C-alpha cells in the first residue's frame, strides 16, 4: 500500500470511529418524540382518552451532541401561568444541540386543557389541580392521566427537574423559588444548589412534602421522591407576558445549563439569597369578592391588613391579616374568590 492511500484510509477509520461513538449515544425519546444526538425534535405526548376525553402535551427534546445530564423543564402545569410558557418558546430557539452536553426536555404546556380553557388552578375538564394529583394514574381523570404521562415519560427520564410556575391568572407575585427539603442530605444539597443557581434572590424552604413516591402530590416532589433533585420557580403574574418576567425564566434556565456544565463557559456569579424558612398561605374563609390592600414583595408586620373580603353586595365578610411579620410573596389581585382558595402568601427569614 502506498503512502498516498494510507492517509485517506486512516481518515476513513477515524470517521467510522466517530460515527460509532455517536451511535453509542443514540437517540432520545419522549413518547413518540425522538431526537438524534446533536438534533432537536418537537411533537406531542399523547394522553389517551379514558373516563374523559384525552389531550396532548407539546414537548421538545433537545438532544446534545455530547453526553451529559437530562434536564426536564416543565411549564404550564397551571395553564394561566404564561411567563414560563412563553420563555420556553424562546429557549427552544436559543439552544443549539451541537453546543449542548446532555439533553433538555421542554414540556411547553403541561396542562393544555387549562391553557386553552384559560382556567386558574383547576382543569376545566375534571376540576382538579394538576400540581396536587402526582404521580397520577393511568386510569384516572384527565389531570391524573396528564400527571401519569409526565411522571413516566418525562420525570422518569430526567436527572433533574424544574417546575416553572408564576402567579396564576389572579395572583400578583414577587419572584421566588421553592427548595423542598426531603431530609436526604445529598439530594437536598443538589436541589439547594439548583435553586441558588437558577438565580432568584428569594428562596422559600419547604419541609412538609410527602415522602411516598406513590403519593408525591406535587410535580417537584415526584422527582424528589424518586431521588432526583428538583425545584419549583415562580416568575410572573396575572396573565402577564412582559419581558421583565420572561427574561427571568430564560436567565434561570441558562444559569442551570451552566450549573450542570451542559454548556461551555463560566457560570455567572451567584447573587446573595434571602432564605424564607417560615411561610403561610392565607385561605379565604368564605366565597365572595377580595380587595387586596398590599402589593407582592411588600414587608408587613404581624396583623397588617392584607385585604378585605366582601359578599356580592359589598358587605364586609372578613379582614385578612398577616399572621406574622414578613414579606408578601403573592396576593390575589382580581375580585373573585371561593371558600378555601389562597388569598395571599406571607413568608419570613429565619429568626
Ligand atoms: Zn402554578
Assign the CATH topology of the largest domain.
Aminopeptidase
Number of DSSP-assigned strands = 20
Structural class category = alpha+beta
Which second-level CATH architecture of the largest domain applies?
Answer: 3-Layer(aba) Sandwich
Count of DSSP H/I helices: 7
Strand arrangement within the widest β-sheet reads 3-4-6-5-7-11-9-10-12
Multimerization state: single chain
Q: Tell me the β content.
A: 25-35%
Low-confidence stretches: 1-23
Q: CATH H-level name of the largest domain... which superfamily?
A: Zn peptidases
Give structural notes.
By secondary structure, this protein is α+β, with helices and mostly antiparallel strands. The chain folds into 2 domains: 26-259, Aminopeptidase, CATH 3.40.630.10; 280-348, OB fold (Dihydrolipoamide Acetyltransferase, E2P) (Beta Barrel), CATH 2.40.50.100. Helices cover 26% and strands 31% of the residues. A 9-stranded mixed sheet has the order 3-4-6-5-7-11-9-10-12. Strands 8, 13, 15, 18 and 20 form a 5-stranded antiparallel sheet that branches. The chain has a 4-stranded antiparallel sheet with strand order 17-16-14-19, with no helix packed on it. Strand 5, helix 2 (82-94) and strand 6 form a beta-alpha-beta unit. Helix 2 crosses helix 7 (243-259) and helix 5 (185-198) crosses helix 7. The protein starts with a helix and ends with a strand. The protein binds zinc ion. Zinc ion (ZN) binds at residues 77-78, 81, 165, 168. Residues 77-78, 81, 165, 168 line the site of zinc ion (ZN).
